[in-house]
C-alpha cells in the first residue's frame, strides 16, 4: 500500500518538533521542498501537522481510552503515528476513515515498527468504530483542557480572567485554520493592485485598511509581489501596535526588539520613508532579516544595530521607542499551535525580562516622547502586571489614549488587550506611555 506523501511530511514534521523542538512551519517547508509536494499535498500536510498539534491532548485522551497502555508509555514514534491517524479519523471529514486506519498501520510498518502494527490497528479501529469517547464533565476546566488541548494552567488563568464561556469561544477560535495577513507597502502599490495579482487567493481584511488576508497561495516567499516588496507578512493586531504609537514623517524612532522587522516596516510606511528608524535586536542573524526586508520593500530610513534592550547603552534619544518584547507568544496560538506546550519554567522568567527591557529603554525616550510596549500574548503577568510595575517605579511615564480602526475604536485608557475571538486577529497587548517633561 502506498502512503500519501502529505501524511509522510506531516509525520516527519511532528517528529522533528518532538525530538528537536523544530518549528513545524520550518519543518514543513523543508519537507515540501525535499519531497517536491504540489500545492494540494503541501496544504494537506500543513493541515494535518497543525491539526494534530491543535488537538494533541484530545487525541491522547482518545488513545488512552482505547489503548491497553497510557499514551506516555507508548514508543514516541508509534505515538506520533497514532496521533496523526486519530486526528484524521475525528477531524478530517474529507479523509475516509478506512484510509486513515490503513495508512496509519502501513506507516507503522514502513517505519520499522512491525511489532506495533497490530496494536496501532486495534486502537485506530476502536476510535473509528466507537468514535468520540465521553469527555470529562462539562463546565469544568478539565473539559476545556481536554476538548481544546490546552494545558490546565492556561485554562485556569483564562477562566479566572474572562469566564468559562469566553474562554471556550477563545479556544474554539484559536483551533481553527488561520489566514495569513499581509500589509500592503503603500509606498509602492495599493491593496487593489496586489489583490489582482493573487487571482482570488486573497481578499481584503474585513476592517483594517491596506491589509489583505491570503488563503491557499502556497509558499508566499516565492510570489512575485512579495519578492518585489509590494507587501510584507504581519498580523493585523501587530500592525495596530504601530498605529497606536503614531509615528510621523521626520521622527526619530527606535524599534528596540525589531526582528523580523514588521513594526519597523509599518512605521516606515506611516512615516512615508522620511525620518530615521533604528531597528535593533540581540541576535545579529535575525537582524539581517530586517535589513533584507527593508531593502526589498525600498525603505531607506531603516538602520540596524545589534543591541540588548535591557542594557542599550548610549544610543541617543528618540521621539518614539517601540518595545515589542519577547513573550510567551500565546496570542499567536492559532498560527503556531505548538506554543501552548511551552515549558512553564521558561514562561515564568518572562515578566522580569519584559520589565527589564522597559527599564533599559526608558532613558532612550526624549522628554515628551512615547514608549510603546506590546506583546503577542493575553497573559496578565506579561501585560498589565508588567506595565503597572514599570509605572509604579517610573511615575513620569503615563498611559496615553489612542484610536484604532473599528470595531475597536478609541482606547482612552492607553491600554488594551486584543482578543482573537473578538477581532479575528492574533492575541495582542498594547500600552502607550507618554514620558512627561522633567523640570
User: How many angstroms separate the termini?
Assistant: 79 Å
CATH class of the largest domain: Alpha Beta
Number-wise, the strands total 14
By CATH's scheme, which homologous superfamily of the largest domain applies? Answer: Vaccinia Virus protein VP39
Task: Give a structural overview.
This protein has 439 residues and is of the alpha/beta class. It folds into 4 domains: 5-130, N-utilizing Substance Protein B Homolog, Chain A (Orthogonal Bundle); 141-174, no CATH class; 180-233, 2-Layer Sandwich (Alpha-Beta Plaits); 236-435, 3-Layer(aba) Sandwich (Rossmann fold). It has 19 helices and 14 strands. It has helices at residues 5-20, 24-35, 39-54, 56-66, 76-91, 97-110, 117-130, 141-148, 152-162, 164-174, 191-198, 224-227, 236-245, 262-270, 284-297, 344-348, 350-361, 384-393, 420-423, and strands at 180-184, 202-204, 211-214, 231-233, 252-255, 276-281, 302-306, 318-324, 365-375, 397-399, 402-403, 410-411, 415-418, 428-435. Strands 5, 6, 7, 8, 9, 10, 13 and 14 form an 8-stranded mixed β-sheet that branches. A 4-stranded antiparallel β-sheet has the order 2-3-1-4, with helices on both faces. Strand 5, helix 14 (262-270) and strand 6 form a beta-alpha-beta unit. Helix 3 crosses helix 5. The model has no long low-confidence stretch (mean pLDDT 93).
Entry summary:
The protein has 439 residues and is an alpha/beta fold. It contains 19 helices and 14 strands. Strands 5, 6, 7, 8, 9, 10, 13 and 14 form an 8-stranded mixed beta sheet that branches. A 4-stranded antiparallel beta sheet has the order 2-3-1-4, with helices on both faces.
Amino acid at each position: 500500500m502506498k502512503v500519501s506523501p502529505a501524511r509522510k511530511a506531516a509525520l516527519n514534521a511532528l517528529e522533528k518538533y518532538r525530538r528537536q523542538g523544530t518549528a513545524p512551519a520550518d519543518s514543513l517547508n523543508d519537507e515540501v521542498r525535499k519531497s517536491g509536494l504540489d500545492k494540494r499535498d503541501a496544504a494537506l500536510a500543513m493541515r494535518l501537522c497543525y491539526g494534530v498539534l491543535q488537538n494533541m491532548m484530545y487525541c491522547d485522551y482518545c488513545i488512552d481510552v482505547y489503548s491497553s497502555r497510557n499514551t506516555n508509555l507508548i514508543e514516541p514514534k508509534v505515538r506520533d503515528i497514532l496521533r496523526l491517524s486519530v486526528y484524521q479519523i475525528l477531524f478530517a471529514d474529507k479523509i475516509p476513515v478506512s484510509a486513515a486506519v490503513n495508512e496509519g498501520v502501513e506507516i507503522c510498518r514502513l517505519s520499522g515498527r512491525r511489532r506495533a502494527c497490530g496494536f496501532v490497528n486495534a486502537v485506530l479501529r476502536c476510535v473509528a468504530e466507537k468514535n468520540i469517547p465521553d469527555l470529562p464533565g462539562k463546565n469544568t476546566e478539565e473539559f476545556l483542557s481536554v476538548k481544546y488541548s490546552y494545558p490546565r494552567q492556561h485554562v485556569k488563568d483564562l477562566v479566572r480572567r474572562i469566564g468559562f464561556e469566553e474562554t471556550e469561544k477563545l479556544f474554539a477560535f484559536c483551533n481553527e485554520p488561520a489566514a495569513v495577513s499581509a500589509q500592503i507597502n503603500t509606498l509602492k502599490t495599493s491593496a487593489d493592485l496586489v489583490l489582482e495579482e493573487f487571482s482570488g487567493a486573497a481578499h481584503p481584511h474585513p476592517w483594517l485598511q491596506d491589509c489583505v488576508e491570503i488563503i491557499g497561495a502556497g509558499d508566499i516567499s516565492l510570489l512575485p509581489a512579495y519578492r518585489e516588496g509590494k507587501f510584507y507578512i504581519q498580523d493585523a493586531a501587530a500592525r495596530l501596535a504601530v498605529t497606536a504609537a503614531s509615528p510621523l514623517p521626520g521622527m526619530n524612532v527606535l524599534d528596540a526588539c525589531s526582528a523580523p522587522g514588521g513594526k519597523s516596516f509599518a512605521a516606515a510606511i506611516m512615516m512615508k520613508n522620511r525620518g530615521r528608524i533604528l531597528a535593533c535586536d540581540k541576535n545579529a542573524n535575525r537582524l539581517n532579516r530586517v535589513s533584507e526586508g527593508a531593502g526589498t520593500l525600498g525603505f531607506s530610513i531603516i538602520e540596524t544595530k545589534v543591541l540588548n534592550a535591557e542594557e542599550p547603552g548610549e544610543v541617543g534619544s528618540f521621539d518614539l521607542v517601540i518595545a515589542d518584547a519577547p513573550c510567551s507568544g500565546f496570542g499567536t496560538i492559532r498560527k503556531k499551535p505548538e506554543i501552548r506546550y511551552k515549558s512553564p519554567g521558561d514562561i515564568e522568567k518572562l515578566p522580569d525580562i519584559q520589565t527589564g527591557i522597559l527599564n533599559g529603554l526608558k532613558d532612550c525616550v526624549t522628554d515628551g516622547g512615547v514608549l510603546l510596549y506590546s506583546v503577542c500574548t493575553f497573559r496578565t503577568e506579561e501585560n498589565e502586571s508588567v506595565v503597572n510595575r514599570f509605572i509604579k517605579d517610573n511615575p513620569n511615564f503615563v498611559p496615553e489614549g489612542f484610536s484604532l480602526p473599528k470595531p475597536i475604536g478609541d482606547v482612552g485608557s492607553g491600554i488594551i488587550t486584543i482578543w482573537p475571538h473578538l477581532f479575528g486577529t492574533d492575541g495582542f497587548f498594547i500600552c502607550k506611555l507618554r514620558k512627561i517633561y522633567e523640570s
